[in-house]
Amino acid sequence: MESKKNTISVLMLPWLAHGHISPFLELAKKLTNRNFHIYMCSTPVNLISIKKSVRKKYSQSIELVEIHLPSLPNLPPHYHTTNGLPPHLMNTLKTAFEMAAPIFSKILQTLKPDLVIYDYNQPWAADSASSMNIPAVQLLTFGAAVVSLAIHMSEDTEEKFPFPEIYLREYEMRSLKEAINESAGNKFPFDEALKRSRDIILVKTSRDFEGKYMDYLSTLVSKRIVPVGSLVQESIDRDDYEEITQWLDKKEKYSTVFVSFGTEYFLSNEQIHAVAQGLELSKVNFIWVIRFPQGETINIRDALPEGFLERVGESGMVMEGWAPQATILQHKSIGGFVSHCGWSSFMESMKFGVPIIAMPMHIDQPMNARLVEYIGMGVEAVRDENGKLQSKEIEKVIRKVVVEESGEAVKEKARELSEKMNINGDEEIDGVVEELMALCSNK
After folding, report:
1. Overall pTM surpassing 0.85 (yes/no)
2. How far apart are alpha carbons 124 and 122 in whole angstroms?
3. Span 242-269, mean pLDDT?
4. Start and end of every Glycosyltransferase N-terminal domain (predicted)?
5. Active-site choice (119, 152, 331, 340)
6. Which of 151, 160, 313, 366 could disulfide-link to 360, CB 3.0 to 4.6 Å?
């Protein structure tokens, strides 16, 4: 512990989702290389999942700190994560996390960090820190375009959003309003969490492609917006997934798509069939990860159209649960990512130069899909007017990006953005370090 005396200690509290914990952890790793000591705070079930990532290299500088949520009906400890959580329990998890505020305060009193970095829905974490004169800063794991549109829409103004390329279709607007109305107690702590961030807001993005949205967001919230780069997870050891890499090695360069819709969204039976038919019609190679909520015993073969696995044969690999996404996306045979456009997946695609076949599902994903098309690194598979996936449209867009000559511009743009992101990453982290050190010295 003596070595920590001259370092800045930071307690990080991400939301209980892999798509939030992973970028917080990647930022933690980058900060430890610049003389910061990190306390990563989450529930035991989430910390188990990241222990492997905190290898010996980080074991002295990143400490895992457990926060135990209060007991609530239908929410045993293995449900203290969004990974595999049945959708009807999401609001219960949010409530339990908020109820853990007094427990979080005790953790702060014990550890006495110099700074707290908290997530989008935790104004209570910032309040606890402020009560002890500890500066608290928000890290947004969403893009600046999405956040600025959300704030603009929430304000009572007749002015149009200044960037018409980012918009919601009618069925997407209905879905978003339903999600907001169903949030626990009809409270939406997003605005409050933004207000409590001290002077700056960290955003997982880059000025290379979101500069104008960052500037507008800064105007809306009256705080400086500090980009932290892609925060993409390091690749998993390839030896652990030899079967996947051997299968990919047999495929031609850029001939295969990776298909995944994130850890929090579960396709309906109808959606699974639409995606399966689109993949089969496209006649491209694919790796498809399908997930089901915890507790549901569904056989993948039964969920897919009858005879699908036999018909696609060696051109398709279907997996259940989880796959090493970063490892797969970096493989030379991958020519496209059929993605829900969650922000972490968006950033991984960009970092590895893989064009996106956009199939957004909910919340911020439709707006991310619009951004994908606007910056030219992907094409959206548009749904019908009722919001239903169309297998023929999925086929068309996959072939356009992966097979046809018209996809060359998209591939080139993805590679160009990847090069920029990888060149500018260190500069962005240096800027973050400078801002955080200034906050700690002024507290």
Report:
1. yes
2. 5
3. 92
4. 7-219
5. 119
6. 366
